[in-house]
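forwarding from the other thread:

> can someone predict this with zinc ion?

sure thing
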Amino acid sequence: MSEIVTVSTRPFEGQAPGTSGLRKKVKVFQQPNYAENFIQSVFDVVSPDPGAVLVIGGDGRFHNRTVIQEAIRMAAANGYGKVLVGRGGILSTPAASHVIRKYKASGGLVLSASHNPGGPEEDFGIKYNIANGGPAPESVTGAIHARTQVIDRWLTVPGEDIDLETPGEYRVGGMTVSVIDPVADYADLMETLFDFDAIRSAVKGGFTMRFDAMSAVTGPYAHEILENRLGFARDTVVNGTPLEDFGGHHPDPNLIHAEQLYLAMMAPDAPDLGAASDGDGDRNLIIGRGRFITPSDSLAMLAANIECAPGYKGRLAGIARSMPTSAAADRVAEALGVPCFETPTGWKFFGNLLDAGKVTICGEESAGTGSDHVREKDGLWAVLLWLNILAVRKISVDELAREHWARFGRNYYARHDYEGVDKAGADALMDGLKAQLASLPGQSFGPLTVSVADSFSYTDPVDGSVSANQGIRVLFEGGSRVVFRLSGTGTHGATLRVYLENYTGPDGNLGAETGDMLAPQIAAAEAIAGIERHTGRTKPDVIT
Ligand code: G6P
Ligand code: ZN
C-alpha cells in the first residue's frame, strides 16, 4: 500500500450540483482545494468498494488536464482499483456513459460545462455519473452537496502526473490507470445500432452532409464515424479539432451559436443534412436543406421512424420527454400505442425509466435526444439515427417533416431566453406566477383562455421519488401553452426561459412562420408574468 496524504480543508459555499453537475467559472475552480473538496465529497458519498473502477473524461476544455491529474491521485487514495481515462483527457459525455457501462465501472467523473464557453475566464464543471452510466440522481447529488458543507479533509497520494497522451497502463499509488482510445468503443456501439450499409450506399449515391463539431469534443468522433467509417467526404466535419477555448465561441448547437451552419443550410447549394453538437457531445442540432428541425420535433420524428434502425426494430417500449418539450412526441406515442412520460428538465430524470425498460427513446427541447444505448443524451447518435432514417426511406429532411405534420399535426414551438437577469427580479417573477396559479384558470389573454395553471411536480413511477417546483405551466384551451422556468445551468445571474407552444392539427396551417403562430402566446406570457417589469428586458436574448 502506498502512502496516503490527508490535506486539511474548509468548506466552500455554493457547491450544490445544478441541473447537470457543479458549474462555475474556471477562476472559482482554480482556488486551492475547490475542485478537491467537491471530488472528495463525491468519493465520501459514494464510498467505493475497494478495487472499484472509476471512469474520468472531459470535453477538452481549459483546466481539464489539471483536474484530471488531481482526480486520479485522489481516486488512488480513496481506494479505487482502476481509473479509465480517455487519451488527452477526452471522453464525450455519451462516450463516458458507454465506457462506464461497458467496463462495469462503479461510476465516472465527467469534466465539462457542456455548451458553456471555455477558457481561463469562462466556465468549468464536474459531474458524477453512477454505475448505470447516467447522471447521479438527486438523492446522490443532495448528499454530495451536504458533504461539501462539512468537509474538512481530502485524500491524495504523492506522485507525478501521468502521460495522458499515450494509451497504456500506468500505476498511481496502489491503483492502475488505463489511458484508452476515447473513440473506438463508442464508434463500435454506433455500428451495432444503425444501418451503416444503408448510409454508406446513400453517401455513394451522392448524399452529402456538414457536421460542425464547434471546436469541441465530437470532432474526433465525427471524423472517425462519418468520414472514416461511413465514407463522407473529408471536408464533411468542420471545426473538428477540440480546442481548450472552443475557438472563443459558445459550443452550443443552436441557431445563434451555429449560425454559419444555419446560413449554409439555407443556401440553395446546401448539403442534404447539416448537424452540430455541443462542448461535451451530448446535444444535437439538425437542419435539412432549407429546413430547421426543432429538438421537440426531432424527438417525435425519430420516434415515429425508429423502426428503420436495426438496433431498435420491434422494441420501442415508450417515449419520454421533459415537461417544457413540446407535446409532438405524445402524439406519436399515442399513434404507436406506447406510453409517453413527462419528466422534469434534466436528463437524470430519464435514468430510472430507461433502466426499468419503460422507455426506449427520450428527448428534451434543450437539444438533447438519446436512447437506452447509454444513460446520457447523445448528439452523434441523433445525427446517425437521422442519417439512418433518411438513407432507408430515401427522403429529404424537409419531406419527412412535412409528411410528419400532415399525419400528426404541428406543434409550433420556440423558447425565449432572458440571460443574465437580476436574480431577485427573476425570483419575484416566479413568485408572482405562483401567486396567480389559483386565479388564472378561466382568464383570457387576447384569443387565449387559460384552462389549467400549475407548478409542475413529478413523481418518479419507478422509485416514487417526488420532484416539486419544476416550472410553471399555463395551459390554454385548444392545446397551446406557455411554460416559465429558471435555468439550472447558468453560472452568473439568472436565466429566465419562456417556452411557447401552439398546436395546429393536420388540417390546419402547417406551413406558417413559427413567430407568427406564437404571437398570441408571446403576448399572453408578458401579460401573465410581467417579464419587462421584473427583468427590465423588452425582448429575449436568444430565441431557439
Ligand atoms: C443540461 C442537461 C439537460 C437539460 C438542460 C437544461 O443540458 O443535461 O438535460 O435539459 O441542462 O438546462 P437549463 O439551463 O434549462 O436548466
Ligand atoms: Zn452538453
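The radius of gyration is 23 Å. thats all i got for now
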